[in-house]
Amino acid sequence: MTTPQRLGSVVQVRPECIEEYCRLHADTWPEVLAQNSDSNLKNYNIFLRKLPDGNHYLFSYLEYWGEDFAADMKNMADNEVVQKWWDLCKPMHIPFEDRAEGEWWASMECVFFQE
C-alpha cells in the first residue's frame, strides 16, 4: 500500500476517569503496542479536549497501512491482552448513541489532509 487509510474517531470520556485514562496511555502495555503494529496501524494519536458543552472528548487519528482492515481488526479483537486493555478503557468512555453499528468510538470524516 502506497498511501494509508486515514481514520479519525471520537468518544466522550468520563471526567472522573481522565487522570487514569491518561496514566494508562502514558504507559501503554507493550503487547497492545505490538498488536497495533501487527495490525498495520501507524501514527496512532489520541487527543483530549473539553468542549464548550462542558464534556471531555477523546479524538483519535491513525493511519492504516494494511490490505485487509477487517481481518487486521479481527486479529486485534481476538488478542487476549488487547481485550483486557479494552476492559480497562471502555468503562471510562461514553460512546455516542448515533455511532455506526459495531463501533465504540464514532468515526469522523476526513475533510482535509496535507502532507
Strand and helix map with partners:
Blueprint: E1 5-13, H1 18-26, H2 30-38, E2 41-50, E3 56-64, H3 69-78, H4 80-89, E4 93-94, E5 106-108
Antiparallel strand pairs: 1-3, 1-4, 1-5, 2-3
What features would you describe in this structure?
The chain has helices at residues 18-26, 30-38, 69-78, 80-89, and strands spanning 5-13, 41-50, 56-64, 93-94, 106-108. With 115 residues, the protein is an alpha+beta fold. Strands 1, 2, 3, 4 and 5 form a 5-stranded antiparallel sheet that branches. A hairpin with a 5-residue loop joins strand 2 and strand 3. The protein is globular and about 40 Å long. The mean pLDDT is 96.
Contiguous uncertain segments of 5+ residues: none
Q: Gap between N and C termini, in Å? A: 17 Å
Rg measurement, Å: 14 Å
**Mind summarizing the main beta sheet?**
5 strands, antiparallel
- Our estimate of the beta-strand percent is 25-35%
- Structural class, by secondary structure, is alpha+beta
Summarize model confidence as the mean pLDDT. Answer: 96
Q: Total strand count, please?
A: 5
Distinct helical segment count: 4
Following the backbone from N to C, one meets helices and strands in this order, namely: EHHEEHHEE
Shape summary: globular
Helix content: 25-40%
